[in-house]
Amino acid sequence: MITNVEKKSLIAHLMRRAGFGCNFDQIEELSLLDYDDIVDQLLNPDFSLPEDQDLLERYFIASVEARTARHADPQWTWRLAKSKKQLEEKISLFWHGLLAVGGIKLDHGLAMLEEIDLFRKHGLDKFKTLLLKISQDPGMMYWLDNQNSHKGAPNENYGRELLELFSMGIDENGDGAYSENDVKSAAKAFTGWASKPTPPPFFLGPFPMEFNFDENDHDNSEKEFLGEKGNFNGEDIVELVSKHPSTAKFICMRLYLYFVSEEENWDEINKLSDVYLTSDGDIKKVLENIFKSDHFKSREIMFKKVKSPSDLVFGVTRLVDRFEIPELDSAELATNTLLMGQFLLNPPSVEGWHEGEEWIDSGSLIERINYASDEISNKSSKGVKRIIEIIKSKKIGSDEEFINVCLEALGYIELSDRSYKIISEHLKINNYENNEDKITDILRIIVSTPDFQYC
Predict the structure, then answer these.
(1) Which residues span the domain enclosing 417?
(2) Neighbouring residues of 267: CB distance < 8 A, sequence distance ≥ 6
(3) Confidence of residue 347 (pLDDT cuts 50, 70, 90)
(4) Would you give the DSSP letter of residue 454?
(5) Which of 67, 305, 321, 358 could form a disulfide with 383 if both were Cys (CB 3.0 to 4.6 A apart)?
């Protein structure tokens, strides 16, 4: 039987991984529910048009007819910062990094937002559903040159990336469970799949992109793919790929690395692969098994993953709760992630972003610390006021109790022994004019520690 504090710590851990974290009051509210019920709520968001969409469009006028990714990103960053359906946004971010499309080449902000909506709507569906939807996404077809793939002259770009980076994967030697002939067959199967040409955006703004299948440009010859023969089209390729054991392992490995740990644990990944195969590739079932597993709940998993720029920026933003309306500063949230190395709506390549410790270098670390420190020091933010209020309301008898209360008020985070000792020594040698100055000083130090870079 776990204690009340342990339960709240576990809920905080779940919300950091399945979303971007919760503040103290939200954790208190969630703690009234059973853990499994919280997981079920996360896994079953009701996809719908956000209630404040009209407000977003009123404040972010340029995003209504977003010409570029930079015009579009305020729409998404507002959702990342404010949406109550945290897993819906987190899974969209996951797929955005795996089924990557770059906004600079695509240069069509509306198409990028439609793709994120696709991930919101189908990101927790069966993988074959999502893979078919993204294969019919006009932005993806343009991004990977499938409009240049024709009967008699197939372009292998999409067929290759579908197998290598989107589904089956390759090993450290560059080998996969598929052959070069499979790549060529996939390319033939996707001939005729393209985005319709759109008029230039000048004067009238960007027109919506549309998927187009040209039957006359499709290769109807017999193809051999993954050991099977037939007159395969794109839907057939997606079906064959999605049910392959290599795809089960690859997708479950990527989900594990993203939501659980940066170190591969093949015993756990193989269990998830079995869930994938027995559920016909149901991503929701895989995630349910992740979040409800003893492995995910174990101490060895907590605070071991490096926060991505999005984890850091939107986690802090939710904690301090500075934005009531989509004002100009909130439109700059994507700039903050960009300065830390993550250009939202514009992954650096078809590989997406390299996660983990690669997020951290001397430049990005300074940006991370400055952002967190500045935000937690802003006493005009509603969330900061509430954190100070919570700490002031506690009966505190020692420096150790004071630090622990601060950590709980920040969402049940933890410090290493080294960081804890440094803060304790800092408290002993400093005199504060008032309790509020003491609180804000220690909060600022906590979010500046190496420990705060992990979730």
Answers:
(1) 382-453
(2) none
(3) very high
(4) B
(5) 321
Is 25 a member of any domain?
Answer: no
| Mean pLDDT rounded to a whole number for the chain | 94
Same domain, 214 and 74: yes
Closest CA to 409 of 381, 388, 424, 434: 388
Q: Is residue 318 part of a domain?
A: no
Residue 213 has a CB neighbour count (10 Å cut-off) of 14
Residue 229 DSSP label: E
- In this prediction, residue 229 carries a pLDDT of 97
Angle between helices 180-189 and 234-242 (to 10 degrees): 140
Residue with tokens 């994967």: 169
- For the record, the structure tokens of 31 come out as 């703690």
In the chain, the number of structural domains is 2
Distances, alpha carbon 203 to alpha carbons 65, 200, 207, 208, 332, in Å: 12, 9, 11, 15, 26
* Residue-wise pLDDT tens digits, 48-81: 877 788 888 888 888 878 888 888 899 999 999 9
Residue 158 CA to residue 149 CA, distance in Å, equals 9
Can you tell me whether residue 53 is helix, strand or coil?
helix
Domain endpoint, select from 278, 297, 316: 297
pLDDT tens digit sequence for 100-139: 999 888 888 889 999 999 999 999 999 999 999 999 999 9
Whether pLDDT at 2 is above 90: no
Q: Is residue 214 part of a domain?
A: yes
| Alpha helical stretches, state H, 83-179 | 86-98, 103-106, 109-122, 127-135, 138-143, 157-161
DSSP state of 126: B
Distances (CA, A) of 193 to 100, 114, 141: 18, 18, 7
Domain finish residue from 297, 323, 356: 297
Question: Which residue is it, tokens 């804000």?
Answer: 440
- pLDDT for 304 equals 93
Q: Which residue has the tokens 């895989």?
A: 286
**Residue 77 and residue 178 in one domain:** yes
Residues 145-203 pLDDT 10s: 999 999 999 999 999 999 999 999 987 777 789 999 999 999 999 999 998 887 777 66
